[in-house]
Amino acid sequence: MIQKRVCILTLGVGSGHLRASETVQRALYDGRDPIEVKVIDALDSSRRWFHWVYVDPYWWMLRNAPGLWRGLFERRQRKAHRSTAPDWVFRRGCRNVLRQIKDYAPHLVIVTEIGAAEIAALGRREGWFNAPILAVQTDFQTEPPWVQSEIDAYCVASEEARGQLIGWGVLPNRVLLCGIPVDPSFALPFDKKELMPALGLDTRRPVVLVMGGGMGPVPLDQVVSSLEHCNAPMQVLAVAGHDRFLRRRMELLRGRLAVDLHLFGWTENVPELMAVSDLLITKPGGLTAAEALAAGLPMILTHPIPGPEERHVRYLCQNGVALHAETLNDIPRLVSRLLSSPEELSEIQRRAGEWSRPDAAHAIAQVAIALLEKATYIDLLATPPPRSGESAYLM
Predict the structure, then answer these.
(1) Phi, psi angle pair for 243, to nearest 5°
(2) Largest pairwise CA distance in the chain
(3) Domains of the chain
(4) How far apart are CA 394 and CA 148, in angstroms?
(5) Angle CA(151)–CA(142)–CA(40) in degrees, nearest 5?
(6) Angle CA(44)–CA(49)–CA(53) in degrees, nearest 5?
(7) Average pLDDT of span 171-189
(8) Could you tell me if 302 and 331 are in contact, meaning their C-beta atoms sit under 8 angstroms apart?
(9) pTM of the model
(10) Phi, psi at residue 96, to the nearest 5°?
(11) Are strands 207-210 and 175-177 parallel, antiparallel or unpaired?
C-alpha cells in the first residue's frame, strides 16, 4: 500500500492556527491507513519582506489603530474581496513555501488559515502541485478570501459560516459542518477533586482561569487586578503564554492582591486548568473558545480583536455560552454574578455541551481521507489542473 502524503499549510500569525494544524495531524495519524503528514508554517520559510508587508502591518494596526483594522475588515466583508493581498505578494514572498510543497509532492493539502488558503490556491493554479485542497476554518464566522476556486472542500465551525460561504458562491455539498479542531483531552472527564490538590488549589474556593487567547494585546495584569474587586475569595490561574514581560508584570502582583494568584507561562496543561476552573476570562479567539466549549467552561469575553473576534462575541453570547465584558470594570461585576449564581453557571455549562464539537478533528480527518481516496484514482503528476471553478476530486 502506497503511503499517502498530506501537507498541512498554515500561517502562524497566532498560536491557534498552529495548534489546530497539529491537532488535525494527530487525528490523521489515528486512522488505520498509513499516512505521512507534514505541517508547514508559511512564516518560517517566507521572505523577510513578506513579514514586513503582510504580517507586521496587521499587528501594528491591532496595537495602535484598531479602528483602522476594523474598517478594513468590514470593507473586505462588505465588498466580498477575494484576497487579503495581491497574488504577487504570495508568489514572490512565499516562493520557498511553494517549493517545499512541490518537493513534498502531497496527495492532499490542508489549509488552516486564510493567507495559507490563498498561498495553496495560487500554488495549485500555477502548477506547483496538483492535489486536492481542504480548507479547515478555526473561526465561527468566515471571510470572502476563503472562497478560492481551487479549494475542493471546506470544514467549517458553524451554520453561519456555512451560509456565508454558500452565499459567496461555494457549492453547498462542498461545505461541511465539522467544528473547530481541538484536542480531545479538553472533553475528558477529569476528577476535579483529585486534580485540584495536585495543582496546589483549595477545593473549597472557586477557581477563575484568565487567558489571552494566544493572539493580540490583552492587559492580563489589569484583568487579574480587577478581580480584587469581586465579592468572593477566589483562586486565579493566569496564563501568560510566551509573553515573558507580561508574566513579570503579573509576578509583581503576588501578595499585593486579595486573590490567590497562580501564574503560568506557556503550558501544555490547559485541559487540566480548564477542568479545575469554574469560569474562564479570555479574549475570544476561535480555538480557545472551542476548547472552553469542549470543557464545558463558562466564558467571560473581553478585548476582542476588531472584526472577526467581535463577531465571535456576538455568536457565543447569542448562543448563551458566554458573557461579554465591554470594559475592565465589567469583569468583577460579571464574575461576582456568575460565581454567586450556580443555576446560571450550570445553564451555561449545559449550553456549552450542546454547542461543543470535541470530535471535530476526527470529523475533519474523515473528510481528508475521503479526498485522499478520490485522489488515488488520479495520476497527480500527469493530470493537468482543473479549469477555474472546476474540481477533479469532488464531482
Answers:
(1) -80, 95
(2) 69
(3) 4-182+358-375 (3.40.50.2000), 185-355 (3.40.50.2000)
(4) 15
(5) 55
(6) 105
(7) 95
(8) yes
(9) 0.90
(10) -65, -30
(11) unpaired
